[in-house]
Structures are given as structure tokens and as C-alpha cells.
Amino acid sequence: GWAEYKWGFGNLEGEYWLGLEYIHQLTQSGDYELRVELGDWGNETRWAQYQHFSLTPEPLNYTLSLGDYQGTAGNSLKYHQGAAFSTRDRDNDFNPRGHCARTFHGAWWFTACHESHLNGRYHHGRHKSYGDGINWMAFRGHNYSLKYSTMKIRKTNI
């Protein structure tokens, strides 16, 4: 739920989420960029990089802010610009007819609902359930769950 995504969970050697609060605090200390690395089940890799990455504080639900995109993955995170983070126990999406985190089985910066979702179910490649895997719309679409994804941030004004 919300508390886990706020404070982080997992193991650095495997699945790991740093924590929204720590990411927010980091991104307030200077200018940061976000790099997303994606891999499919055929060992094809893609990347997306965003300048001026930051998250708002918790009272604003860790709203996502992104600058310019470059990369090979396609700009599937742009759709989420200005979206608040949602979990199964906290619905902050823009969807008046549903709850994206519950529908798609994972927490993310949902709008109504997503073009990317890197916290979805871990299906093996192509699957029949729409949009509930590890998805990046511009790289394999909503019916394909990626093998892995990483999100890395670094300070740019060192």
C-alpha cells in the first residue's frame, strides 16, 4: 500500500523501490534526471531519459514532474506528467469511472489510466490481460509484460 511505496521496500540485489519520500527529498536538493531502462523477453533493450525529474511532497501525493525526453523506448511516461501517485489503498488517478491501481494491479502515477506501468504483474512476455503487466506502451504495448525495468536518477548540476 501507500506506506510501502512512501518508505520503500525490497532488496538491492533484486526488486527494489527506493521510496517516494526519499526520491522527493533527493529531487528537491538540485536538478535531477531520470533514466528508465527496459528489457523484453527476447533480450532487446530500450531506454528513456527525462531532464528535470522531480516529485512533489506527500501532501500533493508525490506528483510527477518531467522535462524533455530522449531515448529509444518511446515517450510513454509523458502521459503521466502531472499525475499523482496512486496505490490500491489511495486512489489519486484522473479516472472518474474507476481505480487504476486496483484495475491494473499495481501502484503508479496513473492518469486515466496509463501508457506506462512499471509496477504491474510479472507476466512472461505477451499476455491476454490488458495493461496489468510491466508495460511501456511505445515498447511492446499493453499486452506484453517486460522482463525487467530500472529507474535511475542522478543529479545533473554537479
Structure description:
The protein is an alpha+beta fold and 158 residues long. It has a single domain (2-155), classed as Gamma Fibrinogen, Chain A, domain 1, CATH 3.90.215.10. 11% of the residues lie in helices and 26% in strands. It contains three helices and twelve strands. The chain has helices spanning 2-7, 20-27, 100-103, and strands at 9-10, 16-17, 32-39, 45-50, 54-55, 64-65, 69-71, 116-117, 125-126, 135-136, 144-145, 148-155. The strands form five sheets. It has a four-stranded antiparallel β-sheet with strand order 7-4-3-12, with no helix packed on it. A two-stranded antiparallel ribbon has the order 1-2. It has a two-stranded antiparallel sheet with strand order 5-6. The termini are far apart. The model has no long low-confidence stretch (mean pLDDT 94).
At the fold tier of CATH, the topology name is: Gamma Fibrinogen, Chain A, domain 1
* H-E string: HEEHEEEEEHEEEEE
**Cα radius of gyration in angstroms:** 15 Å
Q: Could you tell me the mean pLDDT? A: 94
| Amino-to-carboxy terminus distance | 35 Å
- Strand tally: 12
The figure for the number of domains is 1
Main sheet summary:
4 strands, antiparallel
Roughly what fraction of the amino acids lie in strands? Answer: 25-35%
The strands making up the biggest β-sheet line up spatially as 7-4-3-12
Note poorly predicted spans: none
Level-2 CATH architecture: Alpha-Beta Complex
Which overall shape is indicated by the principal axes computed on the Cα atoms? globular
Q: How many helical stretches?
A: 3
Bin the helical content: 10-25%
The named CATH superfamily: Gamma Fibrinogen, chain A, domain 1
Protein name: Fibrinogen C-terminal domain-containing protein
Pfam families: Fibrinogen_C (PF00147)
GO cellular component, one term: extracellular space
Keywords: Disulfide bond
